[in-house]
Amino acid sequence: MTVHFPFQNSYSALPDSFFARVAPTPVAAPRLIKLNRPLAVQLGLDPDVLETPEGAEILAGKTVPAGADPIAMAYAGHQFGQFVPQLGDGRAVLLGEVIDKDSIRRDIQLKGSGPTPFSRRGDGRAALGPVLREYIVSEAMFALGIPTTRSLAAVVTGEHVIRETALPGAVLTRVASSHIRVGTFQFFAVRRDTDAIRRLADHVIARHYPELSGAERPYHALLSGVVARQADLVARWLLVGFIHGVMNTDNSSISGETIDYGPCAFMDAYNPSQVFSSIDEMGRYAYANQPRIALWNLTRLAECLLPLFSDDQEKAVAEAQDILGAFSDTFSNAYQAGLRKKVGLFTERDGDDALIQDLLDAMAKNQADFTLTFRKLGDAAGDPAADDARAQFMDPGAFDEWARRWHERTALEPQSAAERQAAMHAVNPMFIPRNHRVEAVIQAAVNNDDYTPFEELVKVLAMPFEDQPDYAAYADPPLPDQRVLQTFCGT
Ligand code: AMP
Ligand code: MG
User: Fold this and answer.
1) Which residue, judged by its Cα, is nearest atom 22 of ligand 1?
2) Catalytic one among 250, 260, 268, 369?
3) pTM of the complete model beyond 0.85
4) What does the pLDDT average to over 163-192?
5) Residue 97 phi/psi, 5° resolution?
6) Ligand nearest to the CA of 263
């Protein structure tokens, strides 16, 4: 049996300045840890063949499959606000693109596959811990219905990578609707290569925004489209308590998918200023800052597109500002609509926003668990005697006062208690990738070569909205001594 990838590559047909041709570097002893079989099928790949030793060699970058055209993509980026004119795939190669079962073009990329011309001083490798974290969290995001890159496979390389200590090396096979970032545009903008910016914009429109190809002003429409998708994406992050951790412009996808899971985490207790990333000392990428940062990143994208807008710089800037001005309303509408659903409101009335804000304020003051408060609120909608939501509050009285107003408000709607509960449970997950669980999975894998906890966590997180009584403990917040206060990039 040979592994067949039905590649149909388009990015590698763009001009040479867009990438460097480079093959993955072979590794000593690849071993498949995990194959995402449903995703393989979705991509038109045979999961049984991918699980053979030959498949593992491909997923580790030891052999390059027929039809692949491996490249490292060029990009620049603002990292924590500082512009770096050349970053690029320093430890990843794009093997190629396939058209999936839904006719969507998908990149297949190996991350941790060895050095490239963009590696700078890095080794081009990834450690097992961050690979497992990305696998778990990206697939959890997918199951939560949030646009995201996905994980097709994880392999260990049989080699060590040197970080603070020697750690097992691993390669993640990442699937994305593309790996084009805000930083990809910045790479050409800083080089004043307007032709390349136009080529890239045309490629992006054809690939991610085909409905705009006939627009009167396609590049304006493109900026508008990216603004809308990013605003919607960040609203969805906030609604599940997700903190990306490194929202640099090179980690901001033009397609509107969540990309580059590094020191990301879901919050346990609701705290708008929560930061997990060990490298985010100033709290730039704190939970509640994420909308503002997304707009900042989009403003950097707009700057790149100005030469396509108009030769008249002032006019171009005014047009860009106008388009960026839509971010705030698009974000707020998506966020507020999502919150209304989370508290089980079917209609919109004056005072709803204040009612919801009062809940959030009380949650913050009482260190209420974000996920469980909303999930258990669904139970309270079905049965007013259910008091697990109230139990999330340090001072349960603070919840009682709010709950009285909430019951009054929901009584104005015709839906039955059961209908409301079902609607709430469909948007408020029971299970998120809690950080202490992710850390425990990583420890078992790295220290004991034990992947049972990983398999179980991935399985539970694939159905986040189901109660799964056998796995109820996975819904629990960490005990005080289990709390993880920081996550590390692992680069
Ligand atoms: P990240 O923090 O993973 O988004 O990466 C930021 C930049 O650093 C990108 O250009 C990466 O390709 C590069 N990079 C991160 N880790 C490594 C590594 N171990 N070797 C080479 N380049 C790396
Ligand atoms: Mg990155």
Assistant:
1) 90
2) 250
3) yes
4) 98
5) -120, 145
6) 1
Amino acid 37: pLDDT? 98
What pLDDT score does 308 carry? 98
Give the Cα separation of 175 and 106 in Å (integer): 6
% of residues, the chain, pLDDT over 70: 99
The number of angstroms, rounded, from the C-alpha of 190 to the middle of its chain's C-alpha atoms is: 27
State in Å: Cα 179 to ligand 2 middle.
Answer: 10
250 an active-site residue?
A: yes
Could you report the per-residue pLDDT of 343-369, keeping only the tens digit for each?
Answer: 999 999 999 999 999 999 999 999 999
Distance of CA 146 to the CA centre of its chain: 8
Domain boundaries, the chain: 11-179, 183-336
Structural tokens at position 129: 């811990």
CA pair distance 470, 450, nearest whole angstrom: 21
Task: For residue range 190-240, list pLDDT tens digits in order.
Answer: 999 999 999 999 999 999 999 999 999 999 999 999 999 999 999 999 999
88: CA distance to ligand 1 center in Å? 8
| Placement of tokens 């620049």 in the chain | 76
Contact 297, 186 (CB under 8 A): no
Average pLDDT over residues 372-385: 94
- State whether the Cα torsion 346-349-355-356 is positive or negative: positive
Contact at 8 Å (CB) between 76 and 187? Answer: yes
Q: How far is the CA of 377 from the centre of ligand 2 (A)?
A: 37
Pocket of ligand 1 (CB under 6 A): 87-91, 118-119, 122-125, 246, 251, 260, 262, 489, 491
CA gap 285, 294 in Å, rounded: 10
Average pLDDT for 465-489 = 92
Distance between CA atoms of 143 and 8, rounded to whole angstroms? 27
Among candidates 470, 414, 461, 410, which has minimal Cα distance to 434? 461
Tokens standing for residue 208 = 């991610």
Q: Tokens in use for 268?
A: 């346990």
Taking CA atoms only, the protein residue closest to ligand 1 atom 7 is 87
Q: What is the best residue among 110, 111, 119 to mutate for testing ligand 1's pocket, by most ligand atoms within 8 Å of CB?
A: 119
228 in Cβ contact with 330 (< 8 Å): yes
Confidence check: pLDDT of 491 > 60: no
